[in-house]
Amino acid sequence: MCVRESYPRAFARLCPLICALLAVLCYANTLGNDFCDDDLPIIVQNPLVTQPGQWGALWLQDYWHADPLATPYRDLLYRPLAVLSYRLNHAIGGLNPSPYHAVNIVLHALVTVLVYRLTCRLTGSLTAALVAGSIFAVLPIHTEAVNNVVGRAELLAAAFTLLALELFARPRRPLTVAGGALCVLAACCSKESGVVVLPLVPLLAWYQHVTRWGGRPAPGRPDASGLAARWIPAGASLVLAAVVYLVLRFVALGGALYQPVTLTKTINVLADAPTWERVCGAFQLWGLYWAKTLWPQVLCLDYSILAVSPAGSLLKGHALIGLVVFALLLAWSVTKWRRGERLPAVLTVALLLSYLPVSNTVLLIKTYFAERVWYLPSIWVAVIVGQWAGALTQRAVARAVGRPSAMRTAIGALAALAVVAGLARSWIRNTEWRNEGTLYASAYRDHPNAIRSVLLYGDWLTRNGRYQDGIALMRRSIQIDLGFTDAHRMLGAAYLRAGDADMAFQHLQIADVQIPGHPRTQRLLDNARRAVAAPARGALTEAREAVARNPDDLDALIRLADELTGVGELDAAVTQLAQVQTRFADVSAFHHRLAVALVMANRRDEGIASYRRALDLEPDNADLLVELAMLLLDRRADGDLPEARTLGERAFRLAPTDLKARLCRAELLALDNRRAEAAAMFRAIAADLPEESELKRTCQLRAEWLER
């Protein structure tokens, strides 16, 4: 309960309802939206959601297990409660998207009311609670979490975190403690970021023990023994909830608690970044979240490479914003602490704890920046704003001495203006989530060079019959990153739809080499292989006959390997070459072609060994040096990076004008964080290439990114 601060009693009772209604109103126009983006693999195509008899199985599978695009190297996530909620939705309304969106709206309204109650309990101010709840309800940065049905994981994690804090606020009854422990377990099982509830509970328990209701300091010194006696059962229940969660996660993830994701700068721009850049990146990310919260002019699904770049300095862009915000919060906390007020410090610590799992400081995650993950941390942002508003209002009322307060009126007007602005911006953003076409078109409009925006919009265009426009965009995504496996796979599928089997086969082969064993790639590759095999039978037969006539003809053997590779018979190409390995043991060209065949057949380690044998025979072959260096850069095993640097430098000394040697040199410079030199080399390479070359655009984009 909050102090009414001279508000009418009826208005005070309506305040939580006002906050809830604002939350519902903010997203009322999402009820007609379709499933979008990750909703399709996680809900529509997920047998754990749509097939009968899966109520127990969903607790024993990782989140992406049923995704048809999943790989053995997928991000191992465990969110059974979110999947359970989708299954309940399906049991009631099938695959009609409206009920799913309605549940998300209700959950957002529930979280908003819980934010109101939390602010009441911490500040004792009705004004603070009303401002916090109203602002939280309409923050436009929340639109991704609420619009995207699978954003429900964020909503559930936040709701159960706040319910746990509510229940543990008075741990006197066993049922209350048990309920709080269940909420802790539920928060963790909703999304990984829900684990922040574990440190938040003792943090607020300590604050509650050293203060009275409403945040006033408690008289005398805190009784440590009293705190221990009161919180031993609650602490034990927290530990039990954490243990149960870890056991469930360990079983569901096949004997692992966490699997590090193989990251590139396409996935996370801090991949391979030095320590200083990682520090700058944490502040940059922090500043970016605050900027999107306070000035949400551009809201987008995608913040991949070329949409964001590492700051490199604390005095650049969003890193500077993050540093300033951090300094202000720290100064506010220290100043108030010296005056005996503990709440500012508690709120700052709670905000930092909630931000920590997505900050890329403890470990790099698959998503560098995403608006949806700010949902839980923004709870504390709203409480901080509410606390400021409440403190200013109380000061204004005290100075008014019975007269109407102009400051109080101004604060109310500013809060109302912020709410109206948030509502308007959220409604506009909600319309962009109408379906995949509107969503991907808006992402491409806002970030036309972001690799995922380009790829997703291009894929949507090809799936809707606009092959020329869609394929052109998807090829641009490969220009941004030649090693982007998803782009090669999706482009291969697009070429198949367009009837170009040769181009489809080419890109699907690349995707299969980069990530072996991907089920979707294998199915598409089989289709492409059948489509290209028939026209190539004559050439393949001729190549076989040439080898049969003269088994010692290396050129004929290599031609046969090329023909077999061209129709997708990669294992046959390797077998054909391996059968005569002893005959050509002293020929560098043979080992080179065998190495290529092994790599294409997804036997990379054997291919690297064959490259080394070829180099032993021809140590000054720049092509061999470059190709082996790039393979080592891709593998990244112990000792691979130093060896790749040595090979690349040697190739460049031997052939300083060779295109592949120059490209390898530029990539090594970028890896060593010598960005200016790398960008200059990429630009020099681009200047020497013809205008119609796709590699020219790739080098230009690489230089642009490095120069940022």
Structure characterization notes:
The structure is a single chain. With 708 residues, the chain is an all-alpha fold. The chain has two domains: 19-430, no CATH class; 621-708, Serine Threonine Protein Phosphatase 5, Tetratricopeptide repeat. The chain has helices at 9-26, 39-44, 47-50, 80-93, 97-123, 126-138, 143-147, 152-167, 174-190, 197-210, 224-252, 275-294, 317-338, 343-355, 377-400, 406-432, 436-446, 451-463, 467-480, 485-498, 501-514, 519-549, 554-566, 570-578, 588-600, 604-617, 622-635, 640-654, 659-671, 675-687, 694-707. The longest helix is centred in the C-terminal third of the chain and has 31 residues, at 519-549.
Which terms would index this structure?
Serine Threonine Protein Phosphatase 5, Tetratricopeptide repeat, 31 helices
Number of alpha- plus pi-helical segments: 31
Taking all Cα atoms into account, the compactness measure Rg is 30 Å
* Sequence stretches where pLDDT stays below 50 over 5 or more residues: none
* Helicity level: 55-70%
Multimeric organization? single chain
How many discrete domains?
Answer: 2
The largest sheet is:
none
